[in-house]
Amino acid sequence: MSETVQTDCCSAAADTKKPLATIEQTIERAIGLCAPVEGTEVVSLAQAVGRTAAFDVISYLELPLRDHSAVDGYALGGTGTGPFRIVGRTTAGETAAKRLSSGQALRIMTGAPVPPDTEAVVMQEHATVSGDQVTADFAVPAGDNIRCRGEDVSSMDTLVRAGARIDPRHVAILAASGYQGLEVRRKLRVALLSTGNELRDPGVGMGPGSIFDTNRPMLQALLAEEQIDITDLGIKPDKRDVISACLAEAAEHHDLIITSGGVSVGEEDHIKPAILDAGGRIESWSMSIKPGKPITLGRLGNAAYLGLPGNPLACFVDFLLVGRPMIETLEGRLAFMPSPQNAIAAFSWERRAGRREFFPATVVDMSDEGLPVIEKIGRAGSARLMPLIEADGLGVVESEINSVEPGTRLKFFPFRTQMML
Ligand code: AMP
Ligand code: MG
Questions:
Q1: For residue 196, how far is its CA from the centre of ligand 1 (angstroms)?
Q2: For atom 4 of ligand 1, which residue has the closest CA?
Q3: CB-based contacts of 226: which residues, under 8 Å, 6+ apart?
Q4: 208-237: buried (b, 16+ CB within 10 Å) or exposed (e) per residue?
């Protein structure tokens, strides 16, 4: 790590002289402050989405459970086109009919177990019936239209890996394998605090200098995408002793404390001294990105600590880049680096090189090679929210770039609305 920032030098001068940490360095430090939580519980499949598998889940069955017909048609007791004599009829849910001998056929429906010695199933669209005889329109290859026992899942296959975030795909394969639930890690306990004299919740005495608290509800909503126990610590004024007492208390029974506001180096920014007063330690506080440069990381009591900037867009970006990996680490998840996709700029932009810059963007087209072509949304600023509402994701300009032209290749982090699952 090129830069280790100590806590005794939090002045504006020190902050600007120090080289800023890259996003990668910051994430590495942030996850270094987190360890997977201990403790598990068994949950039903209906409750499992968003939880983390505590152990590998192994299949004790084969899927399909037996040989099934993949189509409506005729199970044939031989190769060639026939004719075959139709000796019966079987549908899904019935037990496999008795053996088919050569020259015999069985009317069969999709999902019905095929009888032993079936060579193939011919689709009804490719068969001609006359009386009790069926003739295939062409010689059906052996095994055609049969879903074979075990071709999807073998016994002892790993269905879900320890550390997987359970999503509907896992629910599907577990359900097909006869599982009603699985063992997951216990829910994370995360405390959320907003700091700032100006902040109010609706209905609580707006004064001439007040604004509504945006970050706490936004962070609650971001956390609601996971199954997390959230403690709302409310809004605290810019008072070092008040913040310190609140965080010291929260540190005892949370895995992660997230605050917003007060992380830069202004006279009313009391977060860092408050953490130190509470007996915590601070690891880092400036990241080479825009928006979202001021960020504080640390530990306090039993909890990891993440201090996000007050400007809502900066708070949002830093939560996604740094907060998510911290949560994934606490969850004991497998992979947690969000991976951007390649994209192509539809816009021109002259900017000052130096920090990697994130901007709300919309997908306006697809390039010939199938990449999203993105447009930067108007005048974005770290305090603006409207561009986020219009955006399909966040575009990224690397730190050394000072000019973007239509056709420039960029990275793009699509929002969930752009994704399939
Ligand atoms: P700070 O990080 O405390 O210096 O705040 C930077 C800017 O973000 C200021 O304009 C604050 O008023 C604003 N801000 C801080 N916290 C919030 C919040 N929870 N919701 C909306 N704006 C905030
Ligand atoms: Mg403030």
A1: 7
A2: 262
A3: 50, 188, 327, 331
A4: eeeeebbbbebbeebbeebbbebeebebbe
Average pLDDT over residues 94-99: 84
In short, whether 262's Cβ falls inside 6 Å of ligand 1 is: yes
Q: Which atom of ligand 1 is nearest to the CA of 216?
A: 19
Q: What's the CA gap between 381 and 401, in Å, rounded?
A: 19
- CA 292 / ligand 2 centre spacing (Å): 14
* pLDDT value at residue 284: 67
Q: Whose CA is nearest to atom 6 of ligand 1?
A: 310
Cα(12) to ligand 1 centroid in Å equals: 18
Ligand 1 midpoint to CA 243 (Å): 16
* Pocket of ligand 1 contains residue 264 by CB under 6 Å: yes
Per-residue pLDDT reduced to its tens digit, 6-15: 333 333 334 4
Quote the tokens at residue 385: 């929210």
Cα(343)–Cα(367) distance, rounded to whole angstroms? 9
- Pocket of ligand 1 contains residue 382 by CB under 6 Å: no
**Is the Cβ–Cβ distance between 413 and 340 less than 8 Å?**
yes
Instruction: Give the residue with greater pLDDT, 82 vs 344.
Output: 344
Better-scored residue on pLDDT, 284 or 324: 324
Query: Does 261 contact ligand 1 (Cβ within 6 A)?
Result: yes
How far is C-alpha 62 from the chain's CA centre? 29
Kindly report, residue by residue over 146-158, the tens digit of the pLDDT: 999 999 999 999 9
In this structure, what are the phi and psi dihedrals at residue 62, rounded to the nearest 5 degrees? Answer: -105, 145
How many of the other CB atoms lie within 10 Å of CB of 123? Answer: 17
Widest Cα–Cα separation across the chain: 95
pLDDT above 70 covers a percentage of the chain that reads: 95
